[in-house]
Structure formats: structure tokens, C-alpha cells
Amino acid sequence: MNLTPKQLRILRLIRDWRIRRGYSPTMQELADEIGVSKVTVFEHVEALIKKGALVREPNRARSLSIAEGVPVPDESRPFRYPLVGKIAAGYPIEKVADTDEIDLQQLVGNTSEGGKSMFALKVDGDSMRDEGILDGDYVLIERSPSAHNGDRVVALLPDGATTLKTFFKESDHIRLQPANPDFEPIRVKHCEVQGVVRGVIRRY
Q1: By residue range, what is the domain housing residue 55?
Q2: Range with the poorest average pLDDT among 21-30, 71-80, 94-103, 121-130
Q3: 81 has which bridge partners?
Q4: What is the CATH number for 159?
Q5: Which residues are catalytic?
Q6: 3-state DSSP of 85-148
Q7: Could you say which of 16, 103, 115, 193 has the lowest number of CB atoms within 10 Å?
Q8: Which long-range contacts (CB under 8 A, 24 or more apart) does 135-138 make?
Q9: CA angle 102–106–112, rounded 5-degree value
Q10: Last residue of a domain, one of 37, 66, 95
Q11: Residues 50 and 93 grouped into a single domain
Q12: 22: left (phi over 0), alpha (psi -120 to 50) or beta
């Protein structure tokens, strides 16, 4: 997909807003972030929709989202991931809009791969203890709007909170299963999967 630098930046901003805040930015907020006029942003957004990179629900505010299957590469920063906040591995907590980074070279030394389409979260709580994901760990998340049963996911709940649990789609609801008998499963009709756990980093 042939995208201009500004169009790619708009995609990154929409993706990151949805991860950090649970909703997409307005045209004015995009314009303020990029430093251009609202009209210019509108033109870029329309072009992205025509290219199939963005989806917008009509007559609904903050409805922009990345089209399924469209990769949004991060700027080239090997071994560095955006650290976008804490994730509840106990009871759900409100999202934290941090803008720090986690540097894998600093934590674990050199690795063989970069981290495109990945971000990091610091675990807060011990509901995933029996899966080896402990309070204070960092989880590396691959951005994804979908998951398979048994995947460990970051899920945005209907009340706006996020949680880290194992995903199971059942007959009439979604079960977000903890890995600690002290915690009850979370059962919801719908939730927004924001990513799938691909790795765990622990500092001692």
C-alpha cells in the first residue's frame, strides 16, 4: 500500500490513540498532533479510506479505525517498543496514557529482531501468575484486532478498562480467563482485542 509519510503518521496516531485511550482522535486532534489544518487532515483521512487503510462508521464521532489486516509499521527504532502504560493482571484498571518506551537492549541485551507492530505493557497484578506472567513483568504485545481461543490478550472491556487474560469465545459470550484460582473469569458479550502476548520480560 503506497502511503505518504503524513498518511502513515495519521495511521500510527489513530492506532496509538485507540490502544492508549480506547477511542480514536477527532479530525481536530489529528490536526493538532501533526501541525496541519483540519481540512488537510480530512483530505488525508479520505485518501486513506479510499486506499482501504482506514474504516469510518457513518454518523458516529471518533469512529476511525485501522482496516483489518493493514500493517502499521513503527518508525525504525531497533529493540525499542512504546511503553503505553500498565495492564491489569488482577482486576481491571483504567488505561494509563503513558508515552515512555521500553528498550530491550537495555533490559536483555542484543536480540536478533526488531519489533514492528509491537508494543510493551508493564503487568500490574498476579491474575496470570500460573501462566508465568507475574506482577512487574513486561509483556510484549503484537497489535491485533482478533484472537484465537487460548491466546493471552490485551482486551478493552465495555466499561473502558483494559485487562490481560486468556481469550475464549464461547456460545453467547467471551470469557477472559485468569490463570490464578483467586480470580474469577470476566464474562462479557463483547470486548475489543487490542493485541496478543508474544513475550514476557522479567527484571531481577
Answers
A1: 5-66
A2: 94-103
A3: 102
A4: 2.10.109.10
A5: 127, 165
A6: EEEECCCCECCCCCCEEEEHHHHHCCCCCCCCCEEEEEEECCCCHHHCCCCCCEEEEEECCCCC
A7: 103
A8: 135/89, 136/202, 136/203, 137/200, 137/201, 137/202, 138/83, 138/102, 138/107, 138/200, 138/201, 138/202, 138/203
A9: 90
A10: 66
A11: no
A12: left
Of the given ranges (42-56, 63-77, 170-184), which has the lowest mean pLDDT? 63-77
Question: Three cell numbers at 7?
Answer: 498518511
8 Å CB contact between 97 and 20: yes
Q: How is 166-198 classified by DSSP, letter by letter? A: EEEE-SSSEEEE-SSTTSPPEEES--EEEEEEE
Q: Are 148 and 54 in contact (CB under 8 A)?
A: no
* pLDDT tens-digit series, residues 51-95: 998 988 877 778 888 888 787 776 655 556 666 777 777 766 655
pTM for the full predicted model:
0.53
CATH number of the domain bearing residue 60: 1.10.10.10
How far is it, in rounded angstroms, from Cα 162 to Cα 154?
Answer: 7
Residues 100, 86 contacting (CB under 8 angstroms):
no
